[in-house]
Request: fold
Amino acid sequence: MRITIIFIVFALFMEVLCGCNIPVKPTVSELCSKGNYESAYKIANDEEKLLVEAENITAFLSRLVVDSMIAPGSFILRNAYVVYGEEKVLGSAESAVQYISGIDRYGTADSFYVLWNYNTKLNEWECEDIVTGYISTGNENKTLEEAQQNLKHIRAKYKVESIIKYSSNLLPLTSVKNINNLFENDLLWKVELLPIERVHVDATETLSPAEMIEAAVETAEARRFLTQTAEAPHTVAQTPVP
Reply:
């Protein structure tokens, strides 16, 4: 028995010495870092599956952002957020936000938030708006269409703020680094959404904080616009910026 054990130890030593490494299964983290989300999802436990899905969603949406940028090579993901609601259930992500840096059309560095919502009817992610540091105060909005467009930006700004203030929505820094590395290594374009079945989570009777903010802003701004328009048909009420 002792001789057998010595022989096995000696054999293993010789394998290492000869460069014959014993195969080691990759971890979930290692697979994600290479953009192999499908394999990572298969071996992940329940808690890890949610993180894999969130990183996969962000990587896929980042790919779409890169494709639409004026200077695609300048893409840098700073932070990312994925919203699952009160109960985090696989396949139920409803919104996502990316904080991105890049070169704008004027050749200067800029940072902005991209707000996404999942359209359950079309089964796809849609970009609701891009939020930058500047939002019109209303003086230059000469038409109802321009005022409505500005109101859309304000609503998106409030929604982004309501998402990023909760740490539970924040993607880990390791996931952000993974996505930036995929981009730098020209692998981001290969990322596709995981084939996870969508789960419908019944909405509660009360509005969420984000929905309450949206409703309040929309009502107040619409009322203010109509009031001032009635008093001065050629002017548009100013929109307060928080």
User: Anything to note?
Assistant: Residues 46-68 form the longest helix (23 residues). The chain has a mean pLDDT of 78.
